[in-house]
Amino acid sequence: MSKLRHHQLGLTDDDVIAMYETMLLARMIDERMWLLNRAGKIPFVISCQGQEAAQVGAAMALDKDKDYVLPYYRDMGVVLHFGMTAKDLLLSGFAKAEDPNSGGRQMPGHFGQKKNRIVTGSSPVTTQVPHAVGFGLAAKMKRQDFIAFTTFGEGSSNQGDFHEGINFASVHDLPVIFMCENNKYAISVPLEKQLNCQHVSDRAAAYGIHGETVDGNDPLAVYEAVSKARKRAVNGEGPSLIETVSYRLTPHSSDDDDSTYRAKEEVEEAKKLDPIHTFEEYLHGAGLLSHEGKEEIRSKLRNIIDDATDYAEKAPYAEPETALKYVYGEE
Amino acid sequence: MSKLRHHQLGLTDDDVIAMYETMLLARMIDERMWLLNRAGKIPFVISCQGQEAAQVGAAMALDKDKDYVLPYYRDMGVVLHFGMTAKDLLLSGFAKAEDPNSGGRQMPGHFGQKKNRIVTGSSPVTTQVPHAVGFGLAAKMKRQDFIAFTTFGEGSSNQGDFHEGINFASVHDLPVIFMCENNKYAISVPLEKQLNCQHVSDRAAAYGIHGETVDGNDPLAVYEAVSKARKRAVNGEGPSLIETVSYRLTPHSSDDDDSTYRAKEEVEEAKKLDPIHTFEEYLHGAGLLSHEGKEEIRSKLRNIIDDATDYAEKAPYAEPETALKYVYGEE
Amino acid sequence: MPKISYIEAVTSAIREEMARDENVFVLGEDVGKRGGVFRATNGLYEQFGEERVIDTPLAESAIAGVGIGAAMYGMRPIAEIQFADFIMPAVNQIISEAAKIRYRSNNDWQCPLTIRAPYGGGIHGALYHSQSIEAIFANVPGLKIVMPSTPYDVKGLLKSAIRSNDPVLFFEHKRAYRLIKGEVPDDEYTLPLGKADVKREGEDITVITYGMCVHFAMQAAENLAKEGYDAHILDLRTVYPLDKEAIVEAAKKTGKVLLITEDNKEGSIISEVAAIIAENCLFDLDAPIKRLAGPDVPAMPYAPTMEKYFMVNPDKVEAAMKELADF
Amino acid sequence: MPKISYIEAVTSAIREEMARDENVFVLGEDVGKRGGVFRATNGLYEQFGEERVIDTPLAESAIAGVGIGAAMYGMRPIAEIQFADFIMPAVNQIISEAAKIRYRSNNDWQCPLTIRAPYGGGIHGALYHSQSIEAIFANVPGLKIVMPSTPYDVKGLLKSAIRSNDPVLFFEHKRAYRLIKGEVPDDEYTLPLGKADVKREGEDITVITYGMCVHFAMQAAENLAKEGYDAHILDLRTVYPLDKEAIVEAAKKTGKVLLITEDNKEGSIISEVAAIIAENCLFDLDAPIKRLAGPDVPAMPYAPTMEKYFMVNPDKVEAAMKELADF
Ligand SMILES: Cc1ncc(C[n+]2csc(CCOP(=O)(O)OP(=O)(O)O)c2C)c(N)n1
Ligand SMILES: Cc1ncc(C[n+]2csc(CCOP(=O)(O)OP(=O)(O)O)c2C)c(N)n1
Ligand SMILES: [Mg+2]
Ligand SMILES: [Mg+2]
């Protein structure tokens, strides 16, 4: 049997190349958003940078034709794997009518697309946790074999909804995966001012469920943990709490200035573990990605993003008075 | 050194007799309240029965001249030790103007008395948990050596405020004791439908704090656990989560009929561990309480309660229009 | 037509909807074996089993939030909040989530969730078991708030709430549960959400109210009829969004309007009713708009003296109606 | 007098109160090193240290609840909620606890807590960073809600809020933070809570409003003055409980009343203002009460087209004022 880690996990070479491409696409869209923001073309960006491995590793461990995902605002990697396109995301960035997430009603990062089972999200953090439990409950009641997957930051794991939601799922053994993307900061507040346990996953003990902390810069480690959690979930063994540890490589959002609360050196140090690069090295070492191959992928993705940007920039806004629509369902 | 457990804990013979008397007083007031309710004289009772050992054992481990207590509705044993009298409690039962808790504004069980550092409570469960943390924060900021002690049921440990409050205290190492009086039911809902961990105290791991489960029918065990927790708290070692396990010997309240959801046999079985009796046996075994001594104490307490009942029954209600008072402070 | 109690109307509406649609289920505290602390879900656990009548952990934000998730999937959860006063921990889920799901997703997702809760005073419930809490939600587009007064309305409106594709807050007056009885047809029926109902036709003064106060007003109207005053009584039934047309029509009909709520006065449902009238038919009025409500104190005290002082009751209603009629 | 910005007035009120009373402290998300996401607590961490400018965990119910506990002890906490939209998880602590502590303890305990939060739209904040949420709390006796429009009012009222022995919700318009500048005396002063303020004397029409809309109305009034219309403008400042006397006086003054809020219309603060007028001075009115507000949709969209459509702005205000004047 191959010694390559991804083979041992049952992933083909194509799989890991796809994994890499999705990670890279997320990164490159994110970078484009910042450029557009700094050029004054879009008012707001909130980034996935540094968390792509956790997001794509996890998403690939799910069944994207069955499972429901309830992502948080950084999860571009998750929604890309679940079928959202660069065009969709740029339309959202530009707040255009055709944006499938919200028709330009919500800020970027507020994902939602029913046809891909991406459940609509909001700004107040952690509200999606009980929602995921509701999807898990529906799976159990309707005897369906899908699971619900939801994510949130480590700061958000201090909200009451984290506790109430996971507790409910644990009592009823519901098929839900709770994944905390620990990026060490909640805006300016560092981990040690948010919580006093060593790992966010230590909190699993409060619910008698499986808890596990993995390297969030390693998509294969995340893939493995989430695969196993999914297996447990569909087997009726209940929910899991998985923590992925990485680092937020950008300021909190385009409105933030992180130099007021963290040292440049700390960020530089973290960049050495940037999952895009470390995973590139893995693929290179495995003989799957040459320098030229990398450039080819990048230029392919760049074209996709260019087209998406063009399209989205030219697309129309929703008409003003459509703001009145969809308060209630049409009877 | 004496082999008697209470001596080993540093409690004198007088201390444990006082402990017993307070437990018994709580029990006998509670029984009186039920009689008054069934006679149509007071509209509502919520009981301490079965939890007196936990309450009095804990309260005696505190400094009643310094510490602040934030009790929940069953904590008659706590407030009695902190200085509330039988008369005060009967005034509250009858909803009379002189009731120090609320002047007859709140139901019985909604304790509060500033002069005794009993912090006013409400009906929505678990809201007192963050309040206790606020007292702990004040202690730290003002460099005072008091601690805050708060209690709640095991069902209430599933509220968001439990999580948010304890987490805050743990991050700031605040002098707070969180005590869960696990009586196996939340109204009709049994423990296993409330939570999935073995002990409520397992939840301490989520906050990196000391957690401990003790026999709630044994006042000495509770005394010991709370004494140690208090020591840690004043030494800056942060909060503790203590669980006392006992059983709710009465229906949830005077409005409840527990025969719809639990078997008589289960209740009868639990009565064998009734802390009033088991502690009597301990004191008897220690040569501190004879049969006559017991009867003497009972008749003393009965007189106190009779007087309190008489007084409270005759006391006036608040005037109707005083309902308008104290919405805001007088400027 | 058989006469049933207000709470029986609740139970039978839920039972029939559960039988009709397997996606309907109940979740809340003590709703299972215990059948609810008021016994509104009595018998449902036995009939439909513990999977469809779920005793939840004691956590209202989860009750609402899990309900929202299940509703987005396509279920039709009926969440019970044990007392309306205890809906507060769920406010974020209700206002930030349930109310905004359709709008924020540009009609992609919806949230067909019904949240039931007993509210209201006069049962020695003291500060935290007596409150009217509808005003908190009555500024939140995306929600509908139903507060029926009769068994007939309860049954027809609760069925519509359960079938609605939007979140509905359904507040039941706990004192009405066993006190109020009324005729309810055996045959299946529903009533439209968002429509007020004229409970009494009259020519002299208009009373607009909802919940238990409808009964107080009806009682007072009968007494006043003997004295020759003829009251027109509009039952709002849905208190948000309000039935503006019905309000304007009722106000115009007599030109003298009394608005009643048992909630605190300032910022209540009847404030908006007054505003609608002042905006739309000011010149049709022959008297200032009169409001009868609870005083602006935090909530109703426990002691009977103060509770009675707080509560709207038939005497206070009759006096206010008479004063207005004599204006 | 020096001119400072609205947000500088916030910061300097807090700084002066912290210097004056060691029991005053700040807690909230990112209020410390970061000085707040809007920088309202800028420099306080450096000046007073991390014990008195506390970065809390991300949990609003704890921010309010811990603040309440500390306040009951005798501290004077100033809790910051990062955006008013995110106050929802703290509603139970605010409504069930802070508001009722004095009343339920029969005046034995009190809760001198100030909760500050930026609210309001027009900054591309979309559904969850733009809302006006005051109406949720404007039916809760025991609370006071302050929503100032000018730096002068901000400073004087925030100081009074901090010194108040009751809980105060202090909502700051986030668009005003840097946009609105005004004169503020160097000398210490406070302003009374609960009092509205006439911002412009006039004879033809009365405008009653608060927050950013005060500035829209002032601007429109200047334009209309050139056309010969003279507007009287009342700034509510405290929106709960309302200053009834000032409202009635202002309404009577011209007999034509325009009420403005940027909140959704139904169930808003101006509904109660309309009700007060309809109850107390109906016969002094020469025109129906007119309300200008946001539409009844869940909240303000992100796309500039829809955001603009939603928002009250100087043009809409001027048109409404003119229409009323011409009635
Ligand atoms: C209930 C609530 N409070 C405050 C905010 C403002 N806010 C947005 S993101 C954020 C920090 C989140 O930190 P974390 O959960 O660690 O996620 P991260 O952004 O680091 O990925 C805060 C405070 C919010 N969105 N919702
Ligand atoms: C927020 C809230 N929800 C519901 C209730 C109604 N209620 C009162 S006591 C209770 C059960 C409490 O159970 P537990 O915490 O175990 O305490 P116990 O009564 O068993 O001592 C419930 C559901 C409440 N008071 N507050
Ligand atoms: Mg983070
Ligand atoms: Mg219990």
UniProtKB/TrEMBL annotation, chains A, B:
UniProt cross-references to Pfam families, sorted A to Z: E1_dh
UniProt KW keywords: Oxidoreductase, Thiamine pyrophosphate
- Span of domain Dehydrogenase E1 component: 20-321
SUPFAM superfamilies in the record: Thiamin diphosphate-binding fold (THDP-binding) (SSF52518)
Cofactor(s) needed for function: thiamine diphosphate
Q: What is its EC number?
A: 1.2.4.4
Record's keyword annotation contains Translocase? no
Drop me one GO molecular function for this one: branched-chain 2-oxo acid dehydrogenase activity
**What reaction gets catalysed by this protein?**
N(6)-[(R)-lipoyl]-L-lysyl-[protein] + 3-methyl-2-oxobutanoate + H(+) = N(6)-[(R)-S(8)-2-methylpropanoyldihydrolipoyl]-L-lysyl-[protein] + CO2
Q: Looking at the keywords, is Oxidoreductase present?
A: yes
Q: Which GO terms describe its biological process?
A: branched-chain amino acid catabolic process
Task of the protein: The branched-chain alpha-keto dehydrogenase complex catalyzes the overall conversion of alpha-keto acids to acyl-CoA and CO(2). It contains multiple copies of three enzymatic components: branched-chain alpha-keto acid decarboxylase (E1), lipoamide acyltransferase (E2) and lipoamide dehydrogenase (E3).
Hey, which family's this protein in? Belongs to the BCKDHA family.
Protein's UniProt name? 2-oxoisovalerate dehydrogenase subunit alpha
UniProt source species: Evansella caseinilytica
TrEMBL record, chains C, D:
Q: Which Pfam families match?
A: Transket_pyr (PF02779), Transketolase_C (PF02780)
The highest taxon in the source lineage is Bacteria
Q: Domain named Transketolase-like pyrimidine-binding: which ranges?
A: 4-179
**SUPFAM superfamilies named in the record:** Thiamin diphosphate-binding fold (THDP-binding), TK C-terminal domain-like
Query: What is the required cofactor set for this protein?
Result: thiamine diphosphate
Q: Which UniProt keywords apply?
A: Oxidoreductase, Thiamine pyrophosphate
Its protein name is: 2-oxoisovalerate dehydrogenase E1 component beta subunit
What organism does the UniProt record list as the source? Evansella caseinilytica
